[in-house]
Amino acid sequence: LGLSVSFLDQKAAIPVLTPDRERLLEYDITRSISQVGQAKKPVIGIMSNLPVLGRSLDPVKKQQPTDPWVLASELKRIFDVRKVDLAATKIDDDIKVLLIIHPRDILEPTEYAIDQFVLRGGKVIAFIDSYAYFDQQPDMQNPFGGSAAGQSNLMTLFKAWGVESSQGKVVADLTFASGEGPRLLPTLLSLNNEALNMDDVVTSQVGTLLMPFSASFTVKPPEGLKQTTLVHTSKNSMLADLIIATLSGEPSTRGFQPSGKEEPLAFRLSGKFKTAFPNGKPADPFARGKPVDPEQFEADRKSHLREAAADNTVVIVGDVDMLTDGAAVEIQEMFGQRVAVPRNGNLAFAQGLVEQMRSEEHTSEL
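RE: above sequence
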């Protein structure tokens, strides 16, 4: 048996009512009703330093065009996906969910825009990384040139939210390591249900996750916020220096000392957020020496929010590579068409988070 939900010319289908999703049937039906009950697609934003939405030919930067990631293509089926510049100083009001993917080199004015977006009730899902393998940048510390994996963070926001990421180190986990013998790679995490929060709608159904070179977090939320872990390491894990992140076999486990603790790899913060910028909007670093517009200064002061009016939700994930096509899907040619076949539950995890956030926002609007 399956189920179809229709409203005017909109239709959403649940192709099969399977016993293993029985306890999620109410969620699936509610999501379908939400989809068909909207006259137009809900708007979400994607902010990234990677070509998630594709890239056009740029002869000046010697960049070849690229197709959008499969993640972006799948999200466009349900949402009106807008690109949000990494240098944005305001998030548009019609964007209800903001997906931040690898905010490398983000500046304070943009963090402030995200801060105010959250206080206005906007939902944020942030994928950050301490070793983004698919984002190779020139290694400025190497006199012989070469490249190094990019790193990203939301430093000011994390500090206000009581979050500290393992910048400069990645998780090595022998319980969830990939491969075996000489090919054992403890920093390439193959996570199953033991690492997932089975009480959460999103993580209870993804099955497996592949997280390459992931960061972990220390979370001590301030008063008013609550943390819920979605994905975690095993107790047989430790933080490893970046220099050995890609080593496999015996060299990758030399000196391995498990922490004896399950550390969060992805988590949700919920509650009433307060601003990370108590002194108001930070100065534009590129506007130094320019005269201050007194009218604009006064307008910024009056519009500055210090605390959210209602509870809100933010999700933080310690890996970016997991969303790339190379980690998440296998592209196959079928009858002349390119078909993306999931390798794991990575895309289902990301899509589920966005849908869950949008459902919460839609419910609050109703």
